Amino acid sequence: MKAAHGFSPGSGQRGVSNPYSGVDAADLLLDSADTELTSATGRGVLLLADGSRHEGILFGAPIIGEGELVFTTGMSGFQESLTDPSFAGQVLTFTWPLLGNYGVAPGISESSAVWPRGVVCREWIDHPDHRNCIGSVHDFLLAHNVPGITAVDTRAVTRRVREHGVILCMFGPLEQEEEMRNRLEGMTSPDLEDLVDDVSRDDAVLLNEGAKGNGGIPMPRIAALDCGIKHNILRELCKRFEVLWTPPDLAFDTLLDEYQIDALFCSNGPGDPAHAGKAFASRETLAAGLETKIPVMGICLGHQLLGLATGLETYKLRYGHRGANQPVVDLVTGKVSITSQNHGFAVNPRDTEPLAPHPIWQSQGAPEALSDAPTEVRFVNANDRTVEGLDVIGRPAFSVQYHPEAAPGPHDAAPLFDRFSEIVAKEMQDELPLSKRGVA
Amino acid sequence: MPRREDIQRIMILGSGPIKIGQAAEFDFSGSQACRALRADGFEVILVNSNPATIQNDPEMADRIYIEPLLPDVVRRILEIEKPDALLAGMGGQTALNLASALAHDGSLARLGVELIGSNLATIDEAEDRDLFKQVCEEVDLPVADAHACSSIEEVLLAAERIGQFPLLIRPAFTLGGLGGGMAWNRGELVEIASQGILHSQIGQVLIEESILGWQEHEYEVMRDAADNCIIVCTMENIDPMGIHTGESVVVAPQQTLSDRDHQMLRDASLRLIRRLDIKGGCNVQFAFNQQTGEFVVIEVNPRVSRSSALASKATGYPIARMAALIAVGYTLDELPNPITGEGTTAAFEPTLDYCVVKIPRWPFDKFRTADRTLGTSMKSTGEVMAIGRCFEEAFLKAWASLEYGKPHPRPLTLADTSEGEGMGERAETPLPDETLEHWLRVATDRRMGALYEAFRRGWSIERVREITSITRWFLHKFQRMAATDNEVRSAGWASQDGEGGIEPSEISAAQMRRWKSAGMSDAHICDALADYPVHGLNLLPEGRGEDAVMRCRHSHSIHPVYRMVDSCAAEFAAITPYYYSTYEPHGLPGVDSVPQKRRIAADGDPARRLVVLGSGPIRIGQGIEFDYGCVHAVQAIREVGHEAIIINNNPETVSTDFDTSDRLYFDPLTLESVAEVLLREDADGILLQFGGQTAINLALPLDARMAHLNTLGLEMSLEGTSPDAVDEASDRERFEAFSKRVGLRMPNGLTGSTPEEVRAAAHEIGFPVLIRPSYVLGGRGMEILTNDDQLDAYMREAYIAPDKPLLCDEYLGHAIELDVDAVSDGEQVLIGAIMEHLEEAGIHSGDSTCFIPPQNVSEEVLAQVEEWTTKIGIGLKIIGCFNIQFAICDEKLYVLEVNPRGSRTFPFVAKSTGIPLARIAARVAIGSRLSDLEIPERTTGLVCVKAPVFPFIKLRGLDPAPGPEMKSTGEVMGSDPDPARAYLKARLATELPVPTTGGVYITVKDEDKEAIADVAGRLIELGFNLHATPGTAYALRAHGLTVEIAYRIAERQHPDALDLMRQGKINLVLNTPSKSGGAVLDGNMMRRLAVELNIPFVTTMSGAKMEVEAIAAAIDGIPEPHLLQVKYLD
């Protein structure tokens, strides 16, 4: 069990003598075994901003849950979802009714914390059964001080969200219903918060230092802008790169000059991509990367930021795409991938009316293009035809709205990391080094 | 990739008769394929020998052949029809094997027919055990250590190489694991493997290391020609490895794999089907070691299967329809998702927000002597599925759907060790712990009940885990169910002697919600409150029964909510009217009513909402025929613009295809769930006569509950024959009185409610007597008794009570039996057909071979049959369909019984005569007069024969001879202008060979020894050698016939019949069973061996005569196939 403790991407990689050792959210269950925490119990109620109420039973931490109510339709991977920083600011409803069948396992979290501000479910399983299980979903929420409400008619809740769009909510003890209702009326959208700032790193760290690939060739170095990066992205990147795991707002010049990166990556993350805080800073770094024609890849929020950087608008989807079964069509090959997704915003393709225009653009006009690189929609959602991926024309850069790193979800899109890796290799061959080449 | 324009005509192969391992699922898949392809403009030619399917109804395909599914026959049809393509993946293993044979012998290439869907290489690689192993290794997937063997020598060598028992034997190219099994030693290995080699189409078995105790998981995969792949559904077996997945209790989606585990298996599935180049649907099975995370691939079915039918119904995703469209070139992303409609495509993976449980339906309630042990070959005849928001709810709903007589798990007692029909004092004694442990250890149909019982008794999870190897997660769920059960029980009045305990009317709203959302039915709650009285819940006093729980529940305004099976967990607004009921712990009070407005019917009034009850799981006595009836009833209702609503719980059927009806409710067929659906629908009427005995049995209880439902605003009628008329037809005494009144003759019959009364009755009537319990389907417990000893033996086993008397009838020896299917509107009667049974009365009508038109009945008697049928229909005030069994003894007509419902011969009649009786009956039941309906012209000029198909090969311990108790699982049909050729076709379609040369073994009882001489003489003329027991041989020699004598088996000298059969010298056995003496056992052993060696045998004289006719016809060659000529109402 010790081996799986913590988060250590790139350990065992050739050439890495001092692998990074970080924290996995499940560590808390291993470490805090003897701490007695008080759990929430008793009847509770989930209040929605549309006035509806849904009764249930409280569990997890004994605090009020509040945030933007969203739902995810994945049937497995609850631990990965709970630790996905993209859920920051939200109250997460699981449509799959049996939450936590196989419990929480060490070493598979997507970050060091649980991010949703509350969990809504139909039934949480108090007798999880799996060889790696170290605790139940309840233990996990409690350890991370996140409240939950169970025995809720989650399908009714999901239908509300589907019909109304994502909606603010609050849940807690039945006795506090009136108080909560009053608070809910004054609640503001978490989109207005600088969520990226909440979930991202403050300092840069180099992972996989000295890693060698095939033939003992040193791996290229990539900067991974952490807007709330999932651990599995870092694991995937570490298979192919030396990874500079950086705060989202580190200036591009610093990356290039000080850290001598060969490629740039921008991660997933929570909230509104058009937010003026750290997300905007990231967008600027990305734009600078595009301008220098360094290979760039973006995932999820990173994709939206790349869109914004090239002058495309973003808008908020009614209730987002969250689950493990979203079909994405590659417009070049015609092939469909089943993908893992978790996003509430989307990029609007040029010349198309957005499905729901973003309030920011109404007041401020279209975003200023930070890069004049033209883009082309490469991937679309087979269901609603929303943009799922962009290729930047004439640049070694692309982005996808969905999660090739999966975790949770299917691996159909995993080859995108190889695609990027090949792009980087090709760029390094063709245009010779921005930094420490010459070894090849 | 777009639709292929180079194909216009497509032949689809069905799967033939319903048998163990191959039930209605292929009617469902074939029907979907027909609908999809025809809707897209293709011309469809369908071949299936089973008359009871919807797929070979005139409106389903352009050209239909009801012909034997044999390579010679199908080749001939290909020559006649010259289709462009053959789609074999819809007809199960039968169709796949046929296609494989026709491809390998070059017929398809010669005739220019392309095999679409999965191609030949795919089929070979998936089915041939050795090739499959290579394929897996090629794509780096682990398989169990296994060796393909074609002889016993190779088998023994393989066993040595693997090095340890137990070993699994898996035959190649068989269905339902026939001939497979698990061997714990060399002896068993040889025995099972020789069977396996015999039954495998290519004479090959795989000897495989056993991975006992691992979990079993299934992945249902779709792939198109552009290489888009999706997983439609995952399934997890509760039973660990070692039990055929068709015999396992299955949960969907899988519950106990983490996302990483699941993605590993998902990746493996995709890698495998890409390598196999499967285009369409397929099923991949894995064994998974929960302790280590290792897995091995078990097998791939390169076609739609029973699992895919389950997956379709579990998710709403129409696998067969999509597979058919993929076969003609479409890609998944081009096809709209039919569940959610516009805006979504078929290229997505369904996600569920509920739990599905499937439980197989086994025939051991009828076949008490059969070996109940479950293993790698199938024994179940059908299955039920249930949907709930939690596992407990889904499991208990599935249990309630099984219809074994216990609607929920009751405490196990000694009575359960035999048949569990009460059994008086035995029911007072709890099942001993040792027996319980045995039931947990050795998987049988009883295991799930035993799990529940173990936790009821407080056994620990670890103890049960140790015994069963079942995944702990499931054990916890059983423990939870037992805990809730115990909670109700200890709250009840019975367990507290009335002191402080509650009665049904005192259940609080909170208790009610908790218990209901834990999956307990009203019946379960009242039974538990009463502490499970020995005599069952139906005898509970008023105010303490099921009705009282319902009233209390309704007083709290607690009703189920109905959830749509939408494949997307409510992410998108779905358009599929497919629902299940559930109780949410904090749901909204009140009836969850259907929101839509009623449409306008053909007559301009708002449409009526009419509910049709399905027939539940396929079992002996209640097969696919009743599903056919339900589908026709729905079609009839929709034809006139009313809304047709189906309730059913069988995932294999066409009736539970979501586009068959206006709304489908996948729920148990219990009074409770039917009543709630009626309330939700605000239904106007309900039709009970099509769903077999399951549905008709609800007539009286539903009638009794109607007054209460009226108080909730439901204004509704039972459509068709009134419950009172149903009772008059079904109740022996009332029907006798009726017969007397209108002047019908019945065999003498008396009833007895005590052993003394029964004995007296038998003596008054005189032996032989036909004895049976009242109110049964499929002739359960019916026997012909010839003396007091047999009577005593019968009564020791039987359950007799004042409310369940035994019926004792005069036995009409050598009588001709007739079946009549008809429809009455109360004033006029339409006779569909009169069918003559080949076998004399005494063989259950469901097991008989029958002819349309009758072959040996005088015009005079036929006229009388018509007259009596009319008298019965009008006299009993039957509105809708009914079936009568008559016997003709000494030229005198007797009425044997009347069934006030659709019968299992309805589809056979419809396909033989062109008169769609079920549809006409439905129209009449909902208010039309026969005179208002356009009845199609009767097809004439053909003799049509229906022949039964038996499950003997699958069920050891069952005497393979037809008798008064029904044993067949399905039927086939043959038709030709010539009766012998029609019979030959039916015989060939039963999939037993019809010999044209070789040896015949004859042994008949004394009274038949004279009559057999003609048959024997004819066989010699046809070139057969005869072998016989001494008695029979002397009788034949007296007629100058050449016969070799074999020893009787009991003499223990050689050669006896068994030796000859094993040596391959016998190609047919004629054996009329004796009722007593040593010959009983001889006959049984001989028939058993014949079954195992696939040698046809005949047990009646009339059958023997017909068999010889068929042989003569077969020598002339296989008769020309006939296009089905019938057309229903346009």
Task: Provide keyphrases for this structure.
heterodimer; A: 440 residues; alpha/beta; ten-stranded mixed sheet; seven-stranded mixed barrel; 12 helices; 26% strand; B: 1130 residues; seven-stranded antiparallel sheet; globular
General description of the model:
Helix content of chain A is 23%, strand content 26%. Chain A has a ten-stranded mixed sheet with strand order 10-12-11-13-14-19-18-17-15-16, sandwiched between helices. In chain A, strands 1-2-8-6-4-3-9 form a seven-stranded mixed beta barrel. In chain B, strands 14-13-10-11-12-17-18 form a seven-stranded antiparallel sheet, with helices on both faces. Chain B has a seven-stranded mixed sheet with strand order 19-20-23-22-21-24-25, sandwiched between helices. In chain B, strands 34-33-30-31-32-35-36 form a seven-stranded antiparallel sheet. Chain B is built from 36 helices and 41 strands. Chain B has 1130 residues and is an alpha/beta fold. In chain B, helix 7 crosses helix 8, helix 13 crosses helix 14 and helix 32 runs parallel beside helix 36. In chain B, strand 13 and strand 14 form a beta hairpin. The interface between A and B is large, with 57 and 56 residues.
